[in-house]
Amino acid sequence: MDYLKSLNNSQNEAVNNLEGPMMVIAGAGSGKTRVLTCRIANLIQNNVDPFHILALTFTNKAAKEMKKRIGEIIGDQEARNIWMGTFHSIFARILRKECEKIGYPKNFTIYDTQDSKSLIKTIVKEFHLDDKLYKPGIVYNRISSAKNNLISATAYTKNTDIIADDRMNNRPKLGEIYMEYQKRCFKSHAMDFDDLLFKTNVLLKDHADVLHRYQHKFKYILVDEYQDTNYSQYLIVKRLAALNENLCVVGDDAQSIYAFRGANIQNILNFKKDYPDFKLFKLEQNYRSTKIIVDAANSIISNNTEQIEKKVWTANSEGDKIKVFKAATDNEEGKIVANSIFDNQQREHAKNLDFAILYRTNAQSRSFEESLRKLNIAYKIYGGLSFYQRKEIKDLLSYYRLTANHNDEEALKRVINYPKRGIGKTSLDHAMVAASENGKSLWHILDNPGKYPLAINNGAKSKIKDFIAMIKSFAANLEKLNAYDIAHQIASSCGLLKELYNDKSPEGLSRYENIQELLNGIKEFSDNASDNEVRFLSDFLLDVALLTDADNDKPEDQDKVTLMTIHAAKGLEFPYVYIVGLEENLFPSQLSLNTRVELEEERRLFYVAITRAEKKAFISFASSRYKWGNVIQCEPSRFIEEIDEKYLELSEQKSKAAGQDLPFANSSRFLDKSKKTQTTVQKPIISNHLKKVSNQPGASVNMEKIAEGANVSHARFGKGKVIKLEGSPPNVKATVFFPNVGQKQLLLKFAKLDVID
DNA sequence: TGCCCGGGTGTTTTT
DNA sequence: CACCCGGGCA
Hints:
Strand content: 15-25%
Structural class: alpha/beta
Largest sheet: 8 strands, mixed
Helix content: 40-55%
Number of helices: 34
Oligomer: single chain
Distance between the termini: 87 Å
Radius of gyration: 29 Å
């Protein structure tokens, strides 16, 4: 078998170990994916039916990629039958089949984070709790981590440790919110991301017959990125593998970067407790990067205390030193990086796609976008607001969701009055109250006006009736038409398409195009059905809830510089990698500085970043950057100092604006370490304070000068003329005519009006 | 009921 | 700076 010949010894051993529990510790760039794909191919060559293989990956993209590669070895037909995907997508599929056993209807909806947070917000409001204390994000994370540790709402409210913890944080009602949240999700026939795993656990725990079925089905289980699995995922795998114990987990403890969302590095460290006779394989030869990059990465990670012993090495050439750029400002950082990319393209005939700019937070992308655009270098940003989170897309998807599952409350609330059909907040509030009083879903209340009379006017009543009838008429076709046909029908008859079509602004146009793109996607989904299979809308909804932007690569995006967070870059590689924003409080993040454990995760993140590079790695930081409209001073990240100096090339970019800066070596390296913990937020606080003062109501000198007939200017409306003044100070209201925007009424104490002579 | 203004608030990372 | 939310007004 040819594909086995290209493997090195340790890879070969792992690939040929077909049975029993095994763990592969795979250093960065050591050919992990290759081992996984070859091992699966090898299983199939050894007469294992692809139907009996379950391969769990971290992203959909990884699954797709791996399937493709396996297909190249053993043929697409065989590869197609492997159960391969993310934990979420695989178990959503299984739940779709089996969920009636745990009381859920088959058409359940998957709530994304937005839906969940919106529901939490309503609950907090209904409970009359302080929404500053119970912010949706905080509550969501708390519930999420409970679920990832398989703590149910009931268990949560009974757990004395948790109760004490929540009390201490002044949030004693979290348990009640969690209870209500679960109740509401269930009433809406919805599961959130964490439920998909939680409920799978429930299913496998309480239904021995189901467990046995899947234990027999999945005779061979592989888990990629095992270091990033959480307890809930760990237990699913353990349960499924219990019968045959043909379990292969692959991971790298040095690349564990998702502890913040419940990933448990102990899963790797504890593997030998569950499977004492497991076989351990270590892949330590790096094929990806130059010696310098590998050695520099090793010197970084050696600062961590908790790690599995391994020596990553490479036979590749030495390569260039890692260039470190210092920039005066974040904008200058953008310019330096873009120039350097341009430079390397010229010098080494590299393409756009050979380059990646990696940052800690999505917000950092802007300066790089601007600079790349100025140099005419094509780029693509991953992350940020994903396609599926755009308002217009969520709106249309909500129509689909509501059609498939009438009880989906978040979807219902989103679209019942969009486009406008005269069903306002008041009517909906009445219905919501009735829903919670009667323990019914919102839809049920609206659908049975006879049973649950609402104190709303007749106009609204008949509008609601029309809306209900419309959704029902859509639903009648759910299993008659394929996904595309019904999707198209709904899009045109719900009024959304028309609404967007009539909006001729540039944003409106792009929204319309996005809808078209979504429909194209559904068309493709429908057309991809195999022979004698029809793909319905509900099938699409299952898929779409778990898709992310990275799964959406378009051909025209092929030759572009990649901009993404380091998290998103996990598993990818590029010839040239720029790691930017290496500053204290940014990377490592300010929020990670409290504990060693969190700081070590940041360090692993840096390790992941640098090991993405094949040929050259670059590091940059700025001495000052904008944060919330204020300039703050920054210090170079401690991570730069942790790299052995012999791997670095310090490069100071001359810039007219930054002439007076201290010599680089003095300002960043050999810094007095005691100073490092100081934060430098003095300036922004002062400037913020000053800004506030100058905006004090009534403090404006201009106020006295403003008289009827005066020419004034406004930041947004431009120049205008005061037509009328009324009221007495400080509540003087001015009617101003702006030639550009028309007549406006402004309260002088708020509006920033300047008198122009 | 809906729009518009201005104030308040916030940035980790994501399936 | 940029978004979201609430209040006030049409």
